[in-house]
Amino acid sequence: MANAHYDVLIIGGGTAGIMTAAQLHRKDRKLRIAILDPARDHWYQPAWTLVAAGTFDMKDTRREEATVVPEGVDLIREAAATFEPEANTVRTTNGKAYTYGHLVVCPGIKLDLDALPGLREALATDVVCSNYIDPEKTRRVMTAFTGGVAVFTQPSTPIKCGGAPQKAAYLADEFFRRHGVRDRTKLVFATPGSVIFGVQPFRAALEDVVRKKEIILKTFYNPIRIDPEKREIHFKWSKPGDNHCVITEEQGLPEKIEGESTIVMKYDMLHLAPPQSAPDFVKNSPLAYTDGPNKGWLEVDINTLQHKRYANIFGLGDVAALPTAKTGAAIRKQAPVVVANILQRIKDGMLSPVKYEGYSSCPLVTGYGRMLLAEFKYDNVRDSDPLLSRLFDTSKPLWSMWVLKKYMLPWLYWNRMLKGTM
């Protein structure tokens, strides 16, 4: 027997959940809406890169979760455990059950530390860090760094804010210069991908940044293991159709080849984005893809965000299997589509004509006082904001975009996005 019934039950109180609830409540105050999430804190994680660089205060990225939930929306401080879509029911870890007219699934993403052997142990050392976990530790690690090999890398899994690992490297370059250790540092950015960024003209601009900063770019480097005692990270050479890895010895890096396709690199500092996945209760549910490249991620139509098998279920945010970057900017375009479709279905059982076309953006900080804004949609097509693109060339690192990142976007997030007004 259910403890409560809601017209709309939202799983997750992050950016996607709060925005969706706020917009639904503004458009129809008679709807009974609840957010199911045990979190006590709500974090503005896009600023964590700046926290690590010493230009933003960590405390300013936090609010109490209850203070950002719209008035008139219930906050259920419980964790979802299982979905029973045929019965329109969600069960929680403490055994309670909630029924719904419509369900919105947006619990975010799981940092899967154990998917990379040695990562958990490496993070316990004083030379390995991650802005995804503790940006204040990243600042401490960079401050203590006196030179050597500083490796920045990311996994082959989907990750939230795919540009964040390279932003960390760009800011580290300037941080080391300010602290007088850059001239005795080999700064490496290692990526499983084939290029620094997949969308032109941003790719060309970032390649120029890498060249000017003398960052050693390693493509097709997929991290597979860390040995914290030896301070070594192992990469699998991931170039399609090529099983024989290649290292460029003239760069003077302490790396070697083991077997045909494993590269071992020593580090004096290591920063990485951990492997990431859908939360287990989604991954193991009937709502997730059961096989294929999207296995474990929430199964939704990429344009309507409606579940492909359960018409009264919608999904958005990082957990959704969408072929675009997992960012807050993407959620800002997804939430209105989910809201319009739910309201239309409540009205006449149909879907709204509004579609999500894959918009996302990466505010790529390239240094202190410089940022370019990479905006794109499905199929890696540039999709710049018409107003911004008339005023600025957002494909170039600009001081104005830094102001947008550091001051305007946080204000808009707390005061507009989470209140459902943009």
Characterization of this structure:
- This protein has 422 residues and is of the alpha/beta class.
- Helix content is 27%, strand content 25%.
- The strands form six sheets. Strands 1, 2, 5, 6, 7, 8 and 20 form a seven-stranded mixed sheet that branches.
- Helix 1 packs parallel to helix 9.
- The longest helix is centred in the last third of the chain and has 21 residues, at 328-348.
- The chain is globular.
The percentage of residues in β strands lies in 25-35%
Shape: globular
* E-strand count: 23
**Mean pLDDT, nearest integer?**
95
* Poorly predicted segments: none
Helix content: 25-40%
Tally of individual helices: 11
Given helix and strand content, the structural type is: alpha/beta
Taking all Cα atoms into account, the compactness measure Rg is 22 Å
> Gap between N and C termini, in Å?
38 Å
Largest sheet: 7 strands, mixed
